[in-house]
Predict the structure of t-SNARE coiled-coil homology domain-containing protein.
Amino acid sequence: MDNQRFINEEFQEQELIEKEQDDELDAIHGTITRVKEMGNVIGEEIDEHNKMLEDLSDDMDTAKGKLKSAMRKSKKLLNSKDRGKMCTIFILIIILVVLLIVVFQ
């Protein structure tokens, strides 16, 4: 009888240990699931930020082209002595400043 009782006690103890391990594994599984969900959200955020950076890069390229055009026109006007052209230069400089403000906001 002592052997049978010992075997039963050991069996119950093993079942208790297995249940505790199962509970711990369930907790670990829940944590891993939450980490996976956070990783997915972070990945989506990164994708959104990459898209915004691409859009910003496109906007900067457009502004750069406009700025080059304005600089060419300004240089051409500076080479002439006409008073009306000087007013045009002043207006172009104002437009340039406005474009810079719009692009960098």
In short: The chain has a mean pLDDT of 88.
